[in-house]
Design brief:
Blueprint: E1 6-7, E2 10-11, E3 20-27, E4 33-38, E5 44-50, E6 55-61, E7 66-70, E8 76-79, E9 84-85, E10 109-114, H1 120-131, H2 145-165
Parallel strand pairs: 3-10
Antiparallel strand pairs: 1-2, 3-6, 4-5, 4-7, 7-8, 7-9, 8-10
Helix pairs in contact: 1-2
């Protein structure tokens, strides 16, 4: 999946780092989740699709952002109520210990992927989107044109992600 990840004038992307992080992504939702690394150019790189309840271990770096999408709808999922997960260096959890007290090998940080609390508007649009088969179907609904355009874009995104997955 090659998608830009940009917020306002800031492009979210990985940066070079020496600080390793060892994480376990756990799908704590009832949806299939695409685990995506945001690369050095700000593009999403799909690492894995996790079924509900599954986990995936990854060795990454503290400056490497990760995002999570519903595999079928491309809706954003969250970790600790945030859409972007930035790992911490593996030794942060041992800062209170002396170096000789560190475990013989790093322990993985558990990262639980969940469904966000959607606004009523967001959830309503998702439900309506799931009933439409083509983007043009949105313009047949008796809704304000701004909602029709938004629904059409959502349907187009869902169709595109389904064709990429096939």
């Amino acid at each position: 999946m090659a998608e830009d990840c940009q917020v306002a004038d800031y492009v979210l992307r990985s940066e070079h780092s020496l600080y390793e992080s060892f994480v376990r992504f756990i799908n704590n939702s009832d949806r299939k989740v695409d685990v995506l690394w945001v690369n050095f150019e700000g593009r999403h790189v799909k690492y894995k699709t996790l079924p509900p309840g599954a986990f995936f271990d990854v060795n990454t770096y503290a400056t490497h952002p990760w995002v999570f999408l519903d595999s079928e709808t491309q809706d954003r999922l969250v970790v600790k109520s945030k859409e972007v997960f930035l790992p911490e260096p593996w030794d942060v959890q041992y800062q209170h210990l002396r170096r000789e007290e560190f475990p013989p090998r790093p322990e993985r940080t558990l990262v639980y992927i969940t469904i966000p609390v959607y606004t009523l508007r967001q959830r309503s649009l998702q439900i309506v989107r799931n009933t439409l088969s083509q983007p043009d179907d949105a313009f047949k609904l008796e809704l304000p044109s701004s909602l029709q355009r938004e629904l059409a874009a959502m349907v187009k995104g869902s169709i595109r992600s389904q064709s990429i997955a096939s």
